[in-house]
Amino acid sequence: MNYRSLIPPFLILLLFYIYFIFSKGGGSYVDEYVNIQKDLFLSINGHLSKFPVLQFNLTQLGDVLIFFPLLTVFMVYSPKLWEGLITSALLSLIVSAGLKKLFHVPRPAAMFDNDTFVIIGRTLTGNTSLPSGHSIATFVVITTLLFAFMPNQNRHKIIWTFLMLALGLMIAFSRVGVGAHYPFDVLIGSTIGFIVAVLGIRINARLNWLVWMKNKKFYPVFVVLFAAWIFAIIQKIIADNLLIFYFSIVALVISLYLILKSYVQEKN
Q: Structure pTM?
């Protein structure tokens, strides 16, 4: 993987910027940003919200508390993947928080009559719509997996890339389906997530600051972390009894077993 992979996402962001500039009328940039995609938002929300259970489960994967556990098995078998993932995730927190504060775009529920579209889950009304943090987090994971398991043959590379990007967009657009974000929030967030993941992987390769994760003497730390993680997800189940939460718990339990087994074998 090299920096040339950043050219397409930067071109996408440039196209969004050009589109917005030429679409801009006389109102504020927030009003213009919302109005140019209002019909698109209502259309996508109307179609996706016909599957409320699916959308509500999918949108949870934009939360690292739920998505990351599905990958914890790689902490034993491919710790290098987790080094890049954690670096990218930390970078994404800074980028997401900074951009949300910079753009200060109100959520759909704060701009539109709530009777005109479907809201699934909590009604979000803050000025934190652009970019979608869930989409950034989703594409940090998707991009890390995309490059970590990229096949060798070109034909297989194309298929793998298409499948991973399609999965990422399916998860990201669930944010529109639940009425939490505009379509551009999701597309821009997904693009930023891709860029952040590539930069995070490169930064980690240079700094190698998480190399200690490979050392099994630190496994007890992960045992405590995973146990606390399971407890946190149980709290989510109590609040919203969703199927996806159980997948995350099962993945954590399996990973916890593998880590304990590996640690015991190392001691013996």
A: 0.95
